[in-house]
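Weekly structure sync, notes
Attendees: PL (lead), two postdocs, one rotation student
Agenda item 3: pending single-chain targets
PL asked that the sequence for the first pending target be pasted directly into the notes so everyone works from the same version. It is reproduced below exactly as submitted, 293 residues in total.
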Amino acid sequence: MKTSALFFLVIICASFVGSSSALARQEGRPSALGQIKQADSAAIDCSACPRGLAKAGKTAEQELLAWKRFRLVDDPKKADLVFMLSANPYLGDYLTRKGLDTRPVKIDGAILTIIDPHTGRELWSDSRHWGSLRVASATRALIDELRSEMESEARKWTVEDVFRCSGAPAYQAFAFLTPEAALAKSVAGVSRMDDAPDRLRIGSPEAPDFCRRAQLVSGPDHKIAGFEVVASESDSLDVADILEQADRFQFTSGRDPRTQKVLFTAQSRDRKVLIEFEGQGHRMILSRVRYAY
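Predicted structure, written out during the meeting:
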């Protein structure tokens, strides 16, 4: 349905609040992030990962190996950091807890907590509650978020940054190929996503900054129809900037039928770019950007 002028005003206000909240969150982490940035080695702890959550540990290992930022070790006592995956929040008892965590477990996503193994101090933590079938994606998104915060503690994008990715040669080369043909191309950085068979993960240093890491998306005909950039919590795009260029977009608002979260979308007039924001409390934050060939 068409978005009303009143809703536009609500979005603008929410965007302002969201920017302030994001800044406050990042300002509360500098000393801990500094310790993480100085670390050389890391261990993965998935001891509190029953059933479907077990894939979080394997995914974390794959992502950290691909990142090449930390040297992975098996013994937490010999690590600078511990990447702990769990379904329940960390209680601060890494050094004092005896035995396994006995709290009831509801597997609806993943929590990643970065711990100093020598003090038990929590250095960084966040969660993704995307459902039991998307544990691997949730884990991947959490490590991407940490990486984004470490590389640039706040990334404020513009509408032009987003549009530079439309038609990017690095990704146009995969237009309308089958996933098998895309994987067969001698291009580094293309791989399968275990929990999303209709998508391929891709990363290209030749792509514009906003879409350096993306996902190739297949259409109903089993051919790649476009690509998508999933935003991390350190990615920021002000809705007011989009509204200032309203003649370039068509707007819609509503609720996600699965999560019931408020969604606000801005689609380019040529239908090639779809920018999606998601409501979180009183904030509207950038969720994803989809690009069609």
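Discussion points:
- The CA atoms of residues 47 and 68 lie 23 Å apart.
- Residues 1-30 have pLDDT under 50 and may be disordered.
Action: rotation student to compare against the earlier draft before next sync.
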